[in-house]
Design a protein that fits this description.
468 residues; 14-stranded mixed sheet; two-stranded antiparallel ribbon; 2 helices; 3% helix; disordered C terminus
């Protein structure tokens, strides 16, 4: 019987994370449109009246020194993660592993904008509190046996339960009573309030086997089934297997004095993914007026199916000259079906987009890596490496069931978001709250068309519900 306990505590913070990308909340935006004959030192003293009026070069853009010193986006984050595992060996061949793991963090994010800022002429202060927690419980039964000199087998069956909760609160006021004081108490307008809670669960059963023959031929098989709480009851179960084979040629054949090792491998694998919470049922956001609600902008879909990714790979690994030169080559193909995306629809419906299963993307690629040791002595070794990769992705199918009138495009689906993992054991357990977050802007929001007067990125960081 053996027990292992491990854990880590991490604290991090910053008084400012600069805004990157195109948008008038970042320094590069103003510098991009700066005149060549303007000396930036003229703008270094960025206050005309301290904390009240900035020294501007453009009426539509903030002073870059004010952005760097006053447009602050800070955070204070503490994270604790670890696990407890215990293994009991019934015999030399049979063992049982039980494990509990947890990962959680608390993150307080603040954003501030001074008086006379172009986007917030009366100043702004914002606080965002994020609590994230994920818990995993595992049980794994393993049989490990060697059959004479020929075969080795390792077979395991297990189950996992993952629960993830996210709680997020935001308060923002676009007006400060006293310039230069950034507290919630100094907000002199009705603040915007936002609360978002989500719970996700994924329950899984899985099995895998490794079979080896005379230490040169290996077969690996896996199978897993997940039940997701964020998919509808009829489609919340998805199964995905995999198989791989590896052949150590150098173990049974003489390849000469210059070749030390040669392995050939091939595998096929499938994986399933679900979607984000609140993708199935209509929910509402609290509106600006007291005791009022408003529609969300995305129309949910109660008939979503899980995403299916299927991959094929073949490759080889070879080493030469006592390990001083090695190469690894892989060719692969990936098919992604039923991607969950947001497709544009007519705004006359009351929504901007709809969540749908759509499309098939085929990706073919090649990866090559070379590593060598040009110089190797008892006291010194010089190692060098080079990598090459290329791939081509083709969209074989797209969603065409809805369109959104536009002067430049019709029916173009939005880029698919990366689904997070979730589940329930053969049942749908999606959590529904009465309020859903209102639309938010991102630090890297891009103004379009890219003309200086229209730059309108808000410059405020807000993670999605799948942030970890």
């Amino acid at each position: 019987w053996s027990t292992t306990v491990s854990g880590s505590f991490i604290t991090s913070g910053s008084d400012n994370l600069p805004v990157a990308g195109y948008g008038n909340q970042g320094v590069m935006y103003t510098l991009l449109w700066n005149y060549n004959n303007v000396d930036l030192d003229w703008l270094r003293d960025y206050w005309v009246e301290e904390d009240v009026q900035q020294n501007q070069l453009f009426s539509w853009g903030d002073n870059p020194f004010l952005i760097a010193n006053e447009n602050l986006n800070g955070f204070d984050k503490t994270r604790l993660f670890g696990n407890v595992s215990s293994t009991y060996a019934f015999t030399d061949e049979w063992s049982l592993l039980l494990r509990y793991g947890s990962d959680g963090f608390d993150d307080l994010r603040t954003s501030r904008r001074p008086w006379s800022a172009v986007r917030f002429p009366n100043g702004m202060y914002r606080e965002q509190s994020i609590n994230f927690n994920e818990r995993n419980i595992d049980a794994l039964l393993t049989w490990d046996k060697r059959h004479g000199e020929a075969f080795t087998t390792v077979v395991s069956v297990g189950a996992n339960r993952m629960d993830r909760t996210i709680k997020q609160s935001t308060i923002q006021g676009d007006g400060l009573a006293v310039p230069g004081i950034y507290t919630l108490g100094n907000i002199n307008v009705q603040p915007s309030l936002d609360r978002f809670d989500s719970r996700r669960r994924i329950n899984s059963v899985y099995a895998f086997a490794n079979i080896g023959y005379r230490d040169f031929l290996y077969l690996d098989l896996t199978a897993r089934n997940d039940w997701s709480s964020t998919l509808p009851a009829g489609n919340n179960s998805y199964f995905y297997p995999s198989a791989s084979v590896s052949f150590l040629v150098s173990e049974i054949a003489s390849l000469g004095s210059k070749v030390d090792y040669l392995k050939l491998r091939a595998n096929v694998a499938q994986s399933g993914l679900d979607t984000d919470p609140f993708s199935l049922r209509r929910t509402y956001s609290f509106a600006t007026l007291p005791n009022s609600l408003t529609n969300q902008s995305v129309l949910p879909n109660a008939e979503l199916r899980p995403v299916t990714n299927t991959s094929f790979e073949a490759g080889a690994e070879v080493r030469f000259f006592g390990g001083r030169l090695s190469a690894d080559v892989s060719a692969y193909k990936v098919l992604s079906r039923d991607q969950i995306i947001r497709a544009d629809i007519s705004e006359a419906s009351g929504f901007n987009s709809i969540v749908v299963n759509a499309g098939e993307i085929e990706t073919n690629g090649l990866e090559v890596s070379l590593n060598g040791s040009p110089v190797r002595t008892n006291d010194f070794e010089w190692n060098v490496g080079a990598n090459f990769s290329t791939f081509r992705a083709e969209v074989n199918e797209l969603y065409t069931g809805a369109s959104k009138p536009s002067s430049s495009r019709t029916g173009r689906p939005a880029l698919p978001s990366r689904p997070a993992r979730a589940a329930g054991w053969g049942m749908s357990t999606e959590t529904c709250t009465t309020a859903r977050p209102t639309a938010r802007s991102s630090l890297t929001t891009t103004a379009w068309p890219p003309s200086p007067p229209n730059g309108n990125a808000s410059g405020i960081t807000t993670p999605t519900s799948s942030s970890a």
